[in-house]
């Protein structure tokens, strides 16, 4: 029961983006409402202050109030200091007008804000489910974990441009409010525009999130403005490029003066130039860099990791399984996810040997992940065999499957090892001791070798090397 106790903090470790995305959406709704308030009520407030001061001074007439009725806001000072019944009438009309504006803002919050609040509420309720769960064996946790896996699958498909698949999974699993399809749809829309060499959509997004981008010190807007200038220079529209510089680039000169100065020299260099700095500015590959910069910025704003959540969760498991034996073609285990695909390519790429001591690759010494750790026989007559394994060119291919993800994580550390026989697949322990061949050091279990000796007149044969000896010549092996 102790092993199955739920670690709530660990389960929620990757869930910050889960609640942050709708929170950021609601902030956008709030900012939109705030801009509408400033737009609608700003002129009303200014006009009302003017009317109040004039009424207090006794110089306000009915005609003046009529002129200001559409742009003034009723304040307490107007009602207090106005004695004219006609002015009071217009003030009441102002109140009705302002009430209509407030109703419009209320409708905006109801139509745009309430759905986002509902999403936040459902997501928080989803996370709160496991707070009352005590064990990972409870059915409630299994249902929650299944939903979490579905969310991660949708996240993976969205990041890889499979929007239709993501929508299908979300609909079939009824988790539309628990995934960020709308966010990634916006990302795809803006990235598609950048792919078409258009900065309009990305600049509009920068304008909507100007304060947040400034807070994280993002230079995305400048990069987009610079690229638009480069495109004007590419088309040799010099007058428009100069006007564009004055309007959009001059404001960045304090922080990006060198980039602006270098870009200004494009007037003297055609797009076919071979001069390094200006050839790089004209390079169309810059659009790919803009796409990556935009995605990094929008991920940072929503605290989304750069990699899919599914990958991050797999990293944790792979880090506990990864061993040097995973990168040796002779010691791979078909049941190990780290060995999935040609993960040995990493060893070949880094030109490092896999060092194994005390047992040949024919023996099978595995830790809890099912792999061979370093082993050293303690018997005086048992030779210590050091094997340096270099990957052949044939094995140095692009890693596939989970083996590719495993390259990104460190090797695991296990205080205790488990030795598994390569013949029977059974664990070797004090009741089924590991036995080594005297000449090669190949290690197998006592049970497997006893069975082999009984069938072959007390002679055992290493299935890997073909080495033969009598059963009595085998040596016991101990893990140091």
From TrEMBL:
| Domain CTLH residue range list | 184-240
Gene Ontology molecular-function annotations: ubiquitin-protein transferase activity
Return one Gene Ontology term, BP aspect. Answer: proteasome-mediated ubiquitin-dependent protein catabolic process
Similarity remark: Belongs to the FYV10 family.
Designated name of the protein:
CTLH domain-containing protein
Q: Name one GO cellular component term.
A: GID complex
In terms of InterPro entries, this protein maps to: CRA_dom, CTLH/CRA, CTLH_C, Fyv10_fam
Residues in coiled coil: none
Q: Which Pfam families match?
A: CTLH
